[in-house]
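Quick one: structure for this chain?
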Amino acid sequence: MKVFFSFNMKKQAVLCHAMAAYWKAKDPTAQFAGLFVAKDYDLKGWLNSQDDAKYEFLDSYEELVEEAVNGAASVAETQAWEKKLGLGLRDMIVADRQFGREYSVGGRYPQIALTKLIDHEFQQKVTCRLLAYYEKRLTEFKPDIVFLPAVAAAHAVALGHVATHFGIPTIRICPCLLPNRIQLSFGLYPSQEAYASCENTELDASLEEYHDKFSGRKVPVPIWKEAYISRQQNLKKKGKFKLYWRYGRRFVKLALRTLFHTPKSAYEKLPLSEWWCKANFEIAQASAYDFGFESPRNEPFVLFPLHVDPEASTMLFAPAYTDQTAVAEALSKAIPLSHKLYVKDHQSMVGKRPRGFYDSLKKLSNVRLISPWEDTHQLMAASSLVVSITGSCCWEAANMKKSSLLLGNPLYPVGKAIKQCSDLTLLPGVIYDLISNPVEDDSIERIGTLDQWCVKGDFMSLWRETSKEKLNEICAPICVGIENMLAGLTPKGFKRG
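Got it. Here's what it folds into:
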């Protein structure tokens, strides 16, 4: 087996190396190579120091970008790549937090030294350099598969496009909505066709319990939420005045440092930009600053939970809807006159939204900006309809036998219960029909289908675990799942069409 890894950064590289070690132990002739994002860590040195798997070559993403910056842009070259791949290639830019930060209008993200260089010409140069690199390396190395642990970046999307052009299977790892599962998928984008080709299977005991909790509307609190609440409580104990004092002193130090500091790399975060983002976030979280949030009332409403921004859920899977205030406005025009639109932000985004974000939502007369600390599942149960761009809330609403509407393409099967509509001009009729007609319950089939594309394991532990022994235990089912996919099966080992 020959595998080309998109190592990305350190946490993902540790996972990729554990997979390489597994395959090397199983097949001594296996070969590996890839591209890494070093930032401030000697990732190449770490990977080359490992004895359980060696690499044919390891290339630096930063060096490729530097070559692009120092090179010349050519519209003709860009057009040649667009023709060769049959794609417009703008998705590479929209998917990247830095190169496409002009599209990330709903969240603050620290600037880097490279930010000031980013313009249309720069975007063309980087795009062409990445595509040329992957064409050369994949032609020389001839991998059996390409593995992506993360996709929200220009280099990951470029790799996916070139691999598809050469007919090389691209496999990515995804967080899963099912308990103790890790999801695997082909290609960059979610495929409802892949889900539709699966055999129907019975649910095991853990999934039966999962289904019963949703159908009985006794939904478990996710692990991430418990950790987040604990973090917020710790910030509240510090108090906003202590945080003001701490960040005030930090600002003076950073301002002085900035005067005499030269960035070590183009990807180094600008100190004052990082300070501004972190200070806004922690102070807002510690004080639970109001922002004009409201509580739900006894009235009919459509629920629209917002996404974390920037993130792949919108940047890659629904690039037309990265401006969530514009989506909320479209929904406010489309819902029945008898209803309110409840817009509820993600708790982790309070303090990260840019100035004016919430104000633009509150200007709409039929919109209520609901507190992020309200229970989302209770809101789902009381709503007439749940709308999301690609979020898990539509999956959960359908499991609760509530009507739901998706605007983008999610990572889970939509089945018959979840309606998809990407044409905003059709929304008034679609929304009215969904509110007026009962939802078709197909939760058992959808859960069983999603389970076919999963392996056992805790997704979050992939990024927390450092022990080689435990990582090997986690990676073994992932590697077996990938082998099943290459053999024409689902990751779980069942036939697919």
